[in-house]
């Protein structure tokens, strides 16, 4: 995924907030919505030449794991991007990164840590975006999940060319250097952000990642009392920025 150099300007965080005002998130649960996600993934991955060699479908069993949360991002009511967020614990070790870099992920889990592992990020390649903003808006549920679940690390299994971005803007450390992966047929590297250490600093730098507790509950609460997830979730970043984000569930 390419990220715009515009992020270096001081005006960029404000522009991200402006774009976020036109965004809604949806937690994907229905068959119809999953089919839309599969089509978007295929379109995005084919355009960028990153279709997994072993993939027979753009949906897999990890999409339906009970610690996985698949989100669609809607700009002006159009599906424009998607991401899957996994909550990984010592007793539930299923995630995309654990399949690619099992030794590194298990080392975190054996130390008693909990992890947020985003995967399957896909953006409609036909968009010109406001569009440099979309990668930042798409990964927003990852930061929200780290707060909601009080996780120790956010993982990033990415192509080496993108590592500098995550080190600079998400304060990520390299865990596994660039390594050829049979699953994809190209090199990947594994990075990790220390969520409790960088959380407040990241939110100050990028107000779009702020959120109110009730938005995080709408995103991630699966308790029986909650019932069906809402059709859409309106971002609360601007409200949280005005009031001051509380970094707890």
TrEMBL record:
Transmembrane segments: none annotated. Residues 36-192 form the N-acyl amino acid synthase FeeM catalytic core domain. It comes from the Bacteria. SUPFAM superfamilies: Acyl-CoA N-acyltransferases (Nat) (SSF55729). This is N-acyl amino acid synthase FeeM catalytic core domain-containing protein. It comes from Pseudorhizobium endolithicum.
């Amino acid at each position: 995924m390419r990220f715009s150099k515009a992020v270096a300007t001081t005006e960029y965080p404000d522009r991200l907030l402006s774009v976020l005002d036109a965004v809604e998130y949806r937690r994907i649960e229905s068959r119809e919505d999953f089919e839309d996600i599969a089509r978007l993934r295929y379109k995005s991955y084919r355009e960028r030449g990153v279709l997994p060699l072993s993939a027979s479908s753009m949906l897999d069993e990890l999409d339906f794991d009970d610690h996985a949360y698949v989100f669609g991002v809607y700009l002006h009511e159009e599906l424009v991007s998607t991401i899957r967020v996994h909550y990984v614990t010592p007793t539930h070790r299923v995630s995309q990164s654990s399949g690619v870099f099992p030794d590194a992920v298990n080392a975190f889990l054996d130390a008693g840590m909990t992890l947020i592992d985003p995967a399957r990020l896909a953006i409609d390649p036909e968009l010109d975006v406001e569009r440099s903003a979309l990668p930042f808006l798409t990964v927003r549920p990852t930061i929200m999940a780290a707060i909601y679940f009080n996780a120790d690390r956010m993982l990033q299994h990415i192509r080496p060319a993108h590592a500098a971005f995550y080190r600079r803007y998400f304060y990520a450390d390299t865990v596994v250097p660039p390594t050829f992966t049979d699953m994809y047929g190209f090199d990947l590297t594994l990075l990790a952000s220390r969520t409790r250490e960088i959380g407040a600093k990241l939110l100050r730098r990028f107000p779009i990642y702020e959120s109110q507790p009730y938005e995080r509950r709408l995103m991630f609460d699966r308790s029986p009392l909650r019932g069906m997830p809402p059709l859409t979730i309106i971002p609360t970043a601007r409200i949280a920025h005005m009031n001051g984000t509380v970094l707890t569930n």
